[in-house]
Fold this sequence. Notes:
By secondary structure, this protein is α/β, with parallel strands linked by helices. The chain has 8 helices and 7 strands; from the N terminus they run E-E-E-H-E-H-H-H-H-E-H-H-H-E-E. A hairpin with a 2-residue loop joins strand 1 and strand 2. Helix 7 runs parallel beside helix 8.
Amino acid sequence: MIAGVDGCRAGWVVASAEAWPAAEVRWEVCRAFADVLRMAADCAAIMVDMPVGLPRGSERRRCDEEARALLGPAWTRVFPAPPRECLRASTPRQFQRLHRELTGAGATLPLWGIVRKIREVDEALANSRRAAEKVHEFHPELTWLRLGSGPAPSKHTADGIAWREAVLARFGLAAPRKLARGVKADDVLDATIGLAAAGLDHCIPAGPPPRDDHGLPMRIYY
């Protein structure tokens, strides 16, 4: 079994299947990342669209920089991972202050919105070696790029949703547009395409990845 996971307002969307390409996919919604780990306990690989290895201070992750280069004009879809020290912030103002003090620059505006989820993943992997071995970071935009023809249109548009659905249709898949309250169509699509990254065949940087202070690899699969 393998799983693709994407954060959403309701918590986490999980797509699971025997393999990729998938003959059949199961979709579920979990409130907390700890619930994801319990639900996907039998999965050999759990691909999550969230930073896994975190930088320290002014350090920049090489995988973020390479991801932006691969996406070209769509480079802004990659949010550089914040330093782990920023995760202790409890307000947007405090987060921006810490980020600026540590890196010399403010964080991109949407980043604060996923800080709680980054913290969830980071704490879960710190508390479980087994989870740290099977949970891998992937970036859906890179996976769509690899499987589609060029960068995907914005997922916030009808054309972008249709484009992603067409990519899945090539593999005989159709993701539900409505799954639960607090789950958008693009959340389901991104979780589903995570299954295509579970082969762990495509990653940046190539070769042994740098590791953070907790020993987690700073690497993105796609």
